[in-house]
Q: What sequence folds into this?
């Protein structure tokens, strides 16, 4: 009898594990109508489209040099270095490792933070669900959510700074254009930055 009970439990666990779905990190940058500001959960209206001058690039801040006034209160993303640097208004710097976009999915220029979201939901686009019918309409907050525990939305309408359910991707070119951070790092950054913060994305 005990053997039958153990066998039944083993079968039940196998079925539950087979139904569990872990969603790979996905940023949706290359999906039109993806995770933009038409989101039903966004607390902010769509921002005006911002198109930086082609090829515009500000020089990378030398961390050893004294900070200029213009560097304060900004986020600087050094794509090649897989690094995000936030400088507070009083000049304190926070440097974080990040994952950046894959080749051909990278964006450079100047934008700004327009909104933030704690425990964001992930909503696969219709085209994503067409490619993978097993994807649900929405992935609720939790350990399987590809956006992690925090999302910071930028004014271009598609890019985000967010957490990840794949910390091994940090330090690599892994995303579809967004910037992934360790959960503890994005939670710290989230608490410090506010809408309007300037974001400079460099090569």
A:
């Amino acid at each position: 009898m005990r053997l039958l009970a153990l066998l039944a439990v083993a079968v039940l666990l196998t079925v539950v594990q087979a139904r569990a779905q872990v969603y790979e990190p996905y940023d949706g940058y290359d999906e039109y109508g993806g995770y933009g500001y038409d989101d039903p959960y966004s607390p902010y209206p769509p921002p005006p489209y911002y198109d930086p001058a082609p090829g515009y690039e500000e020089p990378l801040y030398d961390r050893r040099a004294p900070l200029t006034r213009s560097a304060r209160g900004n986020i600087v993303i050094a794509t090649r270095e897989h690094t995000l640097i936030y400088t507070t208004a009083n000049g304190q710097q926070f440097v974080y490792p990040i994952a950046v976009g894959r080749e051909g999915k990278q964006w450079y220029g100047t934008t700004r933070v327009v909104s933030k979201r704690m425990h964001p939901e992930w909503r696969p686009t219709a085209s994503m669900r067409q490619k993978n019918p097993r994807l649900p309409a929405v992935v609720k907050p939790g350990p399987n959510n590809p956006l992690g525990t925090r999302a910071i939305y930028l004014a271009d309408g598609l890019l985000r700074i967010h957490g990840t359910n794949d910390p091994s991707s940090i330090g690599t070119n892994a995303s579809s254009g967004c910037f992934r951070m360790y959960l503890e790092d994005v939670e710290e950054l989230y608490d410090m930055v506010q809408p309007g913060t300037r974001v400079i994305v460099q090569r």
Observations:
- DSSP finds three helices and nine strands in the chain.
- The longest helix spans residues 2-19.
